[in-house]
What we know:
- The protein has about 550 residues and is α+β, with helices and mostly antiparallel strands.
- Helix content is about 30%, strand content about 20%.
- The chain has 14 helices and 28 strands.
- Strands 1, 2, 5, 6, 7, 8 and 28 form a 7-stranded mixed β-sheet that branches. The chain has a 4-stranded mixed β-sheet with strand order 10-25-24-15, with no helix packed on it. A 3-stranded antiparallel β-sheet has the order 16-19-18.
- α9 crosses α10 and α13 (about 500-520) packs across α14.
- The longest helix is centred in the middle third of the chain and has 24 residues, at about 340-360.
Amino acid sequence: MNPRSLLFVLLTALLTPVHAAHDVVVYGETLAGISAAISAARLGKSVVLLSQTTHLGGVATAGLTATDMNRSAVIGGIAREFYGHIYDHYLQPSAWRGDDRTDFFERSKKRTYTGKNDALHMQWVYESRIAEKILADMLQRAGVTVIRRRLLAETADAVELKDGRIIALLTTTGERYAGLAFIDASYEGDLMARAGVSHFIGRESNAAFGETMNGIRPAGIVGAGERSIDPWVRPGDPTSGLLPFIDRALWGKPGDQDNRSQSYCYRVTLTNDPANRIPFTKPATYNPLWHEALVRSLQLKPDTPLQKIVSLTPMPNRKTDTNHLDFVGANTDYPTATHAERARLAQLHRDYALGMLWTLAHDPRVPAAIREELAPWGWPKDEFTDHGNFPHQLYVREARRMRGAFVMKEENLRRQARVDAGHPVGIGSYALDSHVVSTFVDTDGHVRFEGAHLVSQSIRPYGISYYALVPQKSECRNLLVPICLSATHVAYTSIRMEPVYMVLGQAAGAAAALAIDRRVAVQDISYPQLQAVLTAGGQDLTIPP
């Protein structure tokens, strides 16, 4: 080596802050990351959790508070503890301000699968700030070291590898975190990708895994019935160009592979409590063309109720989990973008959400019934106080997906093929649920949705294989990936629910601890031993009929 190069390497090593090595390094403050960290710590391992932000909980403490939990009985372990702590909090009369517990659950049960289960002592509707405090307390009691605002470096040496193992990761702050096992619990899968693990972005073709619902999927007309909205900026004038984020034509054949993912949004929290409400204001970045397709749709179908546009799901204390502020077509570059570019795209989605609510509340072309229904709502003064009362985490529904030792597929979810000879570490049960991916103009000039599906038929509780959480052994021997796990797009549209992430995180933490204790690769741990540890930790891996 050139003496100057050697000197540079030595100086870099001396100047790079090195933190005391931990047994397990968890990257990502999501529910999966928190559960993984607690799981490994309870098994006697020293654990550091690197939060990418100043917060904990990911989207589950950033507005997604109407938890997608259609089968609460299959959620156990640390996840059940978390939802149990929420239950205990809202048993206290002091937790209710201007609202009544009994009345709340009666009026909200149709929107949230009842929102609680008294027999299981669980509640899965809550306020973001309450959930974040509970998670912080759980981490503290487990003895997990939490370090906030740490992003993986974007340099070639961001992940240090040796003999098929990750030795350490480097952050953008120049710190080096060494460990014996690593868990990528981010929504984006950056650690996995930097470690050279195979992964996929977008949608596979149907042919790739013998599926029926993958790839490009043209859907219904944007409009009313067979009446499509006009796609041009100036109606009837193609020379004015298409409205933003509408494709001029389909970019491939139905069922073909592409690199697009289902749309993202912010799950905003609103309130109609006058004492706690901040009125909507017109955003400085307001772009009316972003919302023109929506306004034209409402002009074609003026009897559309507000709940068919955005869902205002009741939360405690006169708040909502507000969904479907989806910015269709704006997220294609997000999965592989730089940190700076992701911040720009997140701001773009924030601007869109603010603008969409402003449009629905104030545009005179929007039916009066919708404007009147939205009029009492605004931003809650007591949520996201460090972020302008707006959620701090974009809802990244899908980014990278690992190509690991086992791939979860549509046939596994439909139970046409059971999971990997009985190696489940979690149970999924949600419908196949993909939000709209794109909009395009078809050959008849109609604007159509593309990519959405919602199918619950033939989806019964199914096992999620442990081997979908680990890379191929030839690629990395000490990494587990509970969010960007190994699954096709179709399978992922069901697995991608926050309680399931938490269950899989617990399995990842337990597996990391076992691999360290046995001094083996994560692919080689004993499944019966892992099963025993998970069962002792409160998980029931018996798949219901």
